[in-house]
Amino acid sequence: GTPHKYDPTFKGPIYDRGCTDIVCCVLLVVAIVGYVAVGIVAWTHGDPRKVIYPTDSRGQFCGQQGTPNAYVSPEMGALGTPPEKPRCFQICVNRCPDRFLTLLSAYSSSDMEYYRQFCVSGFDNPLKVSAGSPMPELPLAADPSSCRPPPSLFQSPIEVLKNKECPAMLIPSTPLARRCLPAVQAKKGVIMVGNETTYDDGKGQRRNVTELLEGAKKANVVLEARQLAMKIFEDYTVSWYWIIIGLVIAMLASLLFIVLLRYLAGIMVWVMIVLVILVLAYGIFHCYLEYAKLKGEAGSDVSLKDLGFQTDLRVYLHLRQTWLAFMIILCVVEVVIVLLLIFLRKRILIAIALIKEASRAIGHIMTSLLFPLCTFFLLCLCIAYWASTAVFLATSNEAVYKVFNETACQYSGQTCMPETFNTSNVTKACPDAQCLFAFYGGESAYHKYLIALQFFNIFMFFWLANFVIALGQVTLAGAFASYYWAFKKPDDIPAFPLFSAFGRALRYHTGSLAFGSLILAIVQVIRVTLEYLDHRLKAADNKVAKFLLGCLKCCFWCLEKFIKFLNRNAYIMIAVYGTNFCASARNAFFLLMRNIIRVAVLDKVTDFLFFLGKLLIVGSVGVLAFFFFTQRIKLVQDTAPSLNYYWVPILTVIVGSYLIAHGFFSVYGMCVDTLFLCFLEDLERHDGSTEKPYFMSPGLQKLLKKRNKGHPDA
Fold first, then answer.
1. Do 456 and 580 fall within a single domain?
2. Is there a contact between 221 and 181 (Cβ–Cβ < 8 Å)?
3. What domain count does the chain have?
4. Which of 338, 383, 545, 641 has its Cβ near the most Cβ atoms within 10 Å?
5. Among 627, 626, 643, which Cα is nearest to 635's?
6. What is the b/e burial string over 653-678, where b = at least 16 CB atoms within 10 angstroms of the residue's CB?
7. Contacts with 355 (C-beta within 8 Å, 6 or more apart), sequence order
8. Is residue 236 domain-resident?
């Protein structure tokens, strides 16, 4: 007979099509150009060293390559303290102190030379000069970068502390992340610092080292975490190839499961349905036995109303009325499931047939299983660009210096310049004033709009990430639609359907994908903003605001889920018809609403099969990894590596297996959804005549009792 072709009024995926949503395409290009410009500006002004290296009180980096300033003294507080708060200092030192020592004791002993290395740069105050000693030569000028008058060679300890040139005391410390933190250790249950249980606080008082424990608690956690990370890294170095073997096994198992669904989908679904019915039946029987067993026992006939609420729930299990209620509920559920099976039997068979057809489609387009790697790579690029831009924006502030003083001063808190501070009017009006680093900031137009640029960075990340996901979905949908609308499968399937669909998506429908991803990005940014506001309002005691915020969060969460569902089906219609986003979304929505029961049944059946598949793959590979890495398989007992923590490779294999299975099943789910929408379109557009033949498989035609008239070979 005459070979069948598409209905002339039907625009399938292999037909010529025009560009859609051009305005959104142009808007996306402009936004990307702006995003690149923001990145260039951020990379020009930003300095990631501010994240890695600590700074002293003058905003100068410590621990940079080629400099002797490797660590920060533990006595000098935290970075970035606002000028209106009590100010502590930070000092760059060559090494961390290894002993308890006070400034007073250093002045009266020979330890001043050791103590001097933990003072500010330029401090050169020797021991007290004894009577008759020659007068040392005074310095000609102060260091202009020190922001303070030249220190006298004969300052007393009180003057040194008042000028904040040295700490009052030193504590034995250990380096951590280029910072010196108290070296807290426990010996026989006793907390010690530098083998001491008490220390001199520099004010003539003895204190217990446990007072330092709170300040070093987080540091110890970090130290323990670093040791744990090193052991985990060692485990990865000796087990990485076995982990790769486990992931390959998971990939092969996922592929095998998808292939077997062509033959076992119906069996698995019906076996599970029968098991659910049998479990409910056993529950009814067990409730009846418990109800009959309690007959005649004292207190078992008390009603639930008379008993009231009890915190011990086991009390209710001794009442006959409880088991009677359980039995009635299970009977109702059993009857409902049986009735649903009776009325939805045909729709369940259609869902099973579509799942089998999806397995055949993937078998003919095997490259679709590798396509998620492309999507993953593009998502990694988006994440890397967003993260690097965010870091450069966050570190593009400049060092801001403020006037600090202990007495009243009209210039207190004002911005100052360290280079010219000693010659300014501030030192004349306020002799004790100092120009110290306050925080990182700036007063230029660029610095004022840093928050807006960070917001734009987050928004563009969501937009581009959603665009990449949309591109992957419409590409897969186009490839699987090419399979469905091939009248003679697989002969009529176009060559390289996946690459053809990818090219069509980029050439004609970039604007539509940008439109759908833009809508979703706006909703996601609103959700992020609500989460930020919720975090800020946690300390507030405004219950009305918290309630309204909770309602908004719930509403936008639901809206995001709905938009994702609508976008997914809109992209399928775009791949099939080549229409714009709004038309595709509208057509997909009303098409699904006209077949809502079929949608619900197919969704639940596929969800069950995907859950079962992930459970089988992850569970089997995880159990195999557990027995192997714990050396419980005698055949390969000597082959298994020796590990610090056997759970490290096991968890890695389990998580990796889940991600692999999820990647395979995401392709399979897109295939099922595409074939389902094509199937619904096929039913509505065609009648089996010579002019409008069905494109569904013979199995679906037989199930629906439909056939192409006059074409027995169809």
1. yes
2. no
3. 3
4. 641
5. 627
6. bbebbbebbbbbbbbbbbbbbbbbbb
7. 261, 265, 605, 606, 609, 672
8. no
Q: Provide φ and ψ at 401, rounded to 5°.
A: -110, 140
Task: Say how far apart CA 277 and CA 274 lie, in whole Å.
Answer: 5
pLDDT digits (tens, 9 = 90+) for 467-513: 999 999 999 999 998 888 887 777 777 788 889 889 989 999 999 99
Residues near 369 by Cβ (< 8 Å), separated by ≥ 6?
Answer: 255, 362, 664, 667
Cα separation, 302 vs 414, in Å, equals: 78
Determine the structural domain holding residue 404 and report its residue range: 398-441
> Which of 438, 431, 437 minimizes the C-alpha distance to 406?
431
Give the whole-angstrom CA distance, residue 337 versus residue 317: 26
Do residues 387 and 404 share a domain? no
- Asked whether residue 523 falls in the same domain as residue 645, the answer is yes
Taking the whole predicted model, whether its pTM rises above 0.85 is answered as: no
Q: For residue 144, what is the DSSP state?
A: G
Sole residue written with tokens 């197919």: 602
Residue whose entry in the numeric block shows the structure tokens 């660009």 = 385
Q: In this predicted model, what pLDDT tens digit does every residue of 17-68 receive, in sequence order? A: 788 899 999 999 999 999 999 999 988 888 777 776 777 666 677 766 654 4
In angstroms, rounded to a whole number, what is the distance separating the alpha carbons of residues 706 and 687?
A: 9
DSSP line for 303-328: -HHHH---S-GGGGGG-HHHHHHHHH
Pairwise CA distance, residues 618 & 656, whole Å:
9
